[in-house]
Amino acid sequence: MKNKKIFVFAGESSGDMHAASLIRELKDLLPEISITGIGGPEMLKENVDLLYDLKQVNFIGFSSVIKNIRKIKSILNKCISEIKKNDPDAVILIDYPGFNLKLIREIRKFYTGKIIYYISPQLWAWHKSRVKIIQKFVDLMLVVFPFEVDFYSKENVKAVFVGHPLIKRIDKFIASNSKTSSDKTVISILPGSRKDEIERMLPVLVNAASLLKKEFNAEINFICSSNFNKSFYEEKITNKDFIIIYDENNSDLNYRTILNSDLVITKSGTSTMECALIGTPFCVVYKTGNLNYAIGKRLVDVEHIAMVNILLKRKAVKEFLQDEMTAENIFEEAERLINDKEYSEKIRSGFTELREILGNKDASLIAAKEIVGLLNIKNQSN
């Protein structure tokens, strides 16, 4: 079999992490593989030839996309040009639908290789009509939630449930780390990884932290994304009693901080799954621009925003969205999580249910084997 070439696109930090794990497994199965694409520091560690760093493509919300439309078109054209020139055996896309679904449509005009989507965009939640793009152009969906298989099968799309990549990652972390005791109540706050959302939510979160610090004399940690310099956060979190957790080496510092917290206040996204799998009670916050929210609300078709709640089909953890995201509401929920042990234990029991739903598959390895199998089929047909 000739050496394989693959193009991988990951547009945000969690996608970069999951793509890197997948790439490691692919390299074990296909040692001579060459990989180009878009990603971040984790893909760079796997010697991926990056066209752009994900920081250059990480836009969220309708208004942000409109403001950066020229830049986005330039990046899209660069990806199209690279795929046309290099003709990879497979194009692997990680979530990030706004960009990736456009890329799929454009490259299928000339590209005859395999298009694989690993970690499905949440098409079942909003803008379901976009599934037609996947139906028409994607060869294989590798999904990380069991219910997604049924969703895609109803749309005549082949989907394989490979497990969730966070399971192995967090189980490995838990096996070598245990919670350390503290005399203080420890509260950690995750304000997000995109500039727009951080700037919109951080003032409210700092106010909530001040209330909690005053009431409980709590240790307050802000777990900050390395997408930005530490100084970016220091300018906004000026209370010297608050600890800025900033881990640019992606060691397990963030996970250790979550594990050693009594509760977490987190922006919606991958971090909600991380908190649940580590086992720390949390509540979810999110606030976007009024235009983004108005458009999004018309398109969304799910009752909850946190994946934990979607999977458990109930509000297992509290969500404070838009106008409900106030310092007072966050304080009230945190106070209950601290003082009402029965309440926090009920939340933890939901996390046990979540693990039962997700199982313990090695997602990266299973996904890599599916991809190699698909490439071998192509090779035999040539």
Your description of this structure?
- This protein is 50% helix and 16% strand.
- The chain is an alpha/beta fold.
- It has a seven-stranded parallel β-sheet, sandwiched between helices. A six-stranded parallel β-sheet has the order 10-9-8-11-12-13, with helices on both faces.
- Strand 1 (5-10), helix 1 and strand 2 form a beta-alpha-beta unit.
- It is globular and about 65 Å long.
- The termini are close together.
Shape: globular
- CA radius of gyration is 21 Å
Structural class call reads alpha/beta
Sheet of most strands: 7 strands, parallel
Helix content: 40-55%
Beta strand %: 15-25%
Mean pLDDT: 90
| Helix and strand run | EHEHEHHEHEHEHEHEHEHEHEHEHHEHHH
User: How far apart, in Å, are the first and last alpha carbons?
Assistant: 11 Å
Key phrases:
382 residues; alpha/beta; seven-stranded parallel beta sheet; six-stranded parallel beta sheet; globular
Write a brief caption for the model:
The chain is an alpha/beta fold. The chain has 17 helices and 13 strands.
Sequence-ordered SSE layout with sheet pairings:
Blueprint: E1 5-10, H1 13-29, E2 34-39, H2 41-45, E3 49-53, H3 62-67, H4 69-86, E4 90-94, H5 97-107, E5 114-118, H6 131-137, E6 140-143, H7 147-153, E7 159-161, H8 165-175, E8 186-190, H9 195-216, E9 219-224, H10 230-234, E10 243-246, H11 253-259, E11 263-267, H12 270-278, E12 282-286, H13 290-299, H14 307-312, E13 319-321, H15 327-339, H16 341-358, H17 363-381
Parallel strand pairs: 1-2, 1-4, 2-3, 4-5, 5-6, 6-7, 8-9, 8-11, 9-10, 11-12, 12-13
Helix pairs in contact: 1-17, 4-5, 8-12, 9-15
